[in-house]
From TrEMBL:
Name of the molecule in the record: Chloroplast envelope protein
Keywords: Chloroplast, Hydrogen ion transport, Ion transport, Membrane, Plastid, Transmembrane, Transmembrane helix, Transport, Viral envelope protein, Virion
Top-level lineage group: Eukaryota
Pfam families: CemA
Annotated Gene Ontology cellular component terms: membrane
GO biological process: proton transmembrane transport
Membrane among keywords: yes
Family: Belongs to the CemA family.
Compartments reported by the entry: Membrane
Membrane topology annotation: Multi-pass membrane protein
Record field: transmembrane: 70-90, 153-173
Length: 193
């Protein structure tokens, strides 16, 4: 382990481990090729070994940089979450103004536009044809946190999460919208059928 003696052992995810192993296999093949070619002079073989040493060092540096970027992405996500949480809890006046503006905008829409908007949003995000979108979104979250994509976990989340959201939206429609605007619920059901 001559190339990484000063660093502690780094845990690799499946994608990183696969990339590093493929690169090391390429370097090993180059080294074996070098050993098979014995007719060259010793200086040529020494230059080839030095080149392989430099390539290995560059490979380790690239791996360390990618590991650094994963940690950077994760810490950036935590900082953004902390800032948004702080703004949510401490910026009540600004949120109150924004909330009143959104409510005024929504209450000025006709019931048909509201029902159409609810149908459009629920079909885009929760509809049965949106599985590829969920797979892309969950995969990008996995990549953002530096995790290896696990197809079983992704398919499990894709098959359950939209169903849970659909149930919550239907409960919201029947519980909240029946009190606020019964005509909106009637229009929603007629448009849904």
């Amino acid at each position: 382990n001559w190339w990484n003696t000063r660093q502690s052992e780094i845990l690799l995810n499946d994608i990183q481990e696969k990339n590093v192993l493929e690169r090391f296999m390429e370097l090993e093949e180059l080294f074996l090729l070098d050993e098979m070619i014995k007719e060259y002079s010793e200086t040529h073989m020494q230059r080839l070994r030095i080149g392989m040493h430099k390539e290995t060092i560059q490979l380790v540096q690239r791996h360390n940089e990618s590991h650094f970027h994963i940690i950077l992405h994760f810490s950036t996500n935590l900082i953004c979450f902390a800032i948004l949480s702080g703004y949510f809890f401490l910026g009540n006046e600004e949120l109150f103004i924004l909330n009143s503006w959104i409510q005024e905008f929504l209450y000025n829409l006709s019931d048909t536009i509201k029902a159409f908007s609810i149908l459009l949003v629920t079909d885009l995000w929760i509809g049965f044809h949106s599985t590829h979108g969920w797979e892309l979104m969950i995969g990008s979250i996995y990549n953002d946190f530096g995790l290896a994509q696990n197809d079983q976990i992704i398919s499990g989340l894709v098959s359950t999460f939209p169903v849970i959201l659909d149930t919550i939206v239907k409960y919201w429609i029947f519980h909240f919208l029946n009190r606020v605007s019964p005509s909106l619920v009637v229009i929603y059901h007629s448009m849904n059928e």
